[in-house]
Design goal:
By secondary structure, this protein is mainly alpha-helical. The chain is built from 5 helices and 3 strands; from the N terminus they run αααβααββ.
């Protein structure tokens, strides 16, 4: 049955004007459904285009991944040559933190421990730093262990060093 025939049959239902209202409502609903169908067709076409783009992107990522399979991750190289002309790499920069001064040796740590008797690494480091050689507690711990100092844990929970 065609659209106009349906509307005509609906308008013949009642003689009190109610049939005309039903026909208008039905006509409006048909227009809305037709609009939805056309919008659905547009969305499906757009979806097809997007699926194609996604497939292309995935294949591109797979190609890139397979070409990088042997390389280790890291920043990409900009040029094919090293920056310096002689082909040698630059040396590593200075290590993080403060390096232990050459004057601070195992013998210096032994001397400070002999003077203080028993002390934490921080106390030994403070004594050495007051003497003019800035040093960290970590370096003192390392040197005290190499010096053969005995280690005990004090009541405060800190490690204490003393000569045996």
């Amino acid at each position: 049955m065609s659209r106009s025939a349906r509307i005509a049959s609906i308008s013949r239902v009642g003689h009190d004007g109610r049939g005309a209202q039903l026909a208008e409502v039905a006509d409006r609903m048909v227009r809305q459904i037709e609009d939805l169908v056309s919008e659905l067709a547009t969305l499906r076409a757009e979806n097809g285009v997007l699926r194609t783009e996604v497939r292309e992107a995935v294949s591109m990522m797979e190609r890139v991944s397979s070409s990088l399979a042997g390389r280790r991750p890291g920043p990409a190289k900009v040029g094919g040559r090293p920056a310096s002309g002689n082909g040698r790499r630059a040396g590593r920069g200075r290590a993080r933190g403060r390096a232990t001064p050459a004057g601070v040796t195992v013998d210096v740590v032994k001397a400070v421990l002999a003077k203080l008797g028993e002390a934490t690494a921080a106390e030994v480091a403070a004594e050495i730093t007051r003497a003019g050689a800035p040093v960290s507690g970590r370096a003192v711990r390392f040197l005290a262990e190499r010096a053969g100092a005995q280690t005990s844990v004090g009541q405060d929970g800190q490690r204490r060093y003393r000569l045996g």
